[in-house]
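Hello Y.,

Per our agreement to keep a running log of every chain we model this quarter, I'm adding this entry. I've kept the format consistent with earlier entries: sequence first, then predicted structure.
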Amino acid sequence: MNHFAIAGIVLTAVTGLYVASASNPNVVGERLLAQQQDIAALRMDADVLPALPPTGLDAAVFRKAKPRRFVWVSAGAPAQSGNGSRDRPFARIGDAVMMARPGTAIMVKAGTYNENVLFPKRTNGTPDAPIWLVSADGPQAARIVAPREGKWAAIGGGGTDNVVVQGFHVTGGHNGIQFSQNGYDYHDTVNNIAVYGNVIDNPKEDGVKINGGSNVIVADNVITNCYDEAIDLLGIVNGQISHNSVSKVDSRTGAISVKGGSDRILIDANKISDITSDGVLVGGWTSPRMASRPGYEGFEARNVRVTGILVQGVGKRAVNILAAQRVDVSGNYLDVSPTYGAAIELGRNHPRAAVALYSSDVAIANNQFSRTAGRMRSMEGTGKVRFLNNRNGGRPALSAGARPVPRPVSRCRRARRVGIIA
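Predicted structure for the entry above:
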């Protein structure tokens, strides 16, 4: 058992648990998996897998960090006259971001901001002094509206490290919130990113996209009306997608996706509904033009746990597993689409990839399916799979989705007294 941490939050990487392939397979074009297996070796140590800690302004991965400096923004402030103090706030969030340095909390007052908020290159926090971008008057009091045309996210940055985005209503943008490596060769990655408690709607493509980096948490967001993935992690090592509510995703792929050599990912307690294609995509079809992350070749996703999710109203699969290794799908409610052949499907990477990669070491256990027919199918070439103690029918026996996000009351009171701390 290997442990790994996201800034103090301990998760568990599952290795070596799958010791035998499915028994009694029937090969009729696709391999149908056995209904019961020995469960003795299938143990996921759920007691060490965390929930997110209670959070106010100190969101997600930066539990012990505290702001050292506050910069204020108000939609009603006169243009060009602000200096970022509470008494003379900036009118644009982008002006405050330009001033940010490690330990800065950017406090955005209630109102609508028509802009793309972009972190300049090398505007980074540190693990003990991140940069906070916060809706200061409470969840969704500050709304960012960005044009869907063009290539810019509503909130985004390239090669960005140690940033928290909390509590906004984000509308539009090419993607809603996006932090990505600079270039495609993993020399300038993103690290320690928390996207927490936002409402995101109507981007041109993804709701949240994090590409090429490490230590990412996307939690307690409500994401609707996307035209690609609602949440997309590509080439991420150490990631958590927790307690998000995702709906109305008109995508050819999936509502929640982890691919591109992603490793050690926890997907838990998300509510997914009204999806054109798949609910959760573990692995995927990363473009053959994209180089794999060095050291993470040979799979699309690895060491992934999908648990406690509620998937209803999908057009295709509740969970689609493509070229993924060491995957646990357990304790979920999974809708079986009446118009598609399987709630869970196991397949390969992009058909034009130079090397064909298949899924293996997959455990599917203790799930509740909405009906008996069409629970699972597997492409020929899939490796070891266990299908254990799953049941059919009945109402969902779990709750999932975004939790209430507390207002950053104590920090705001301090910020009113202090203003900008040089």
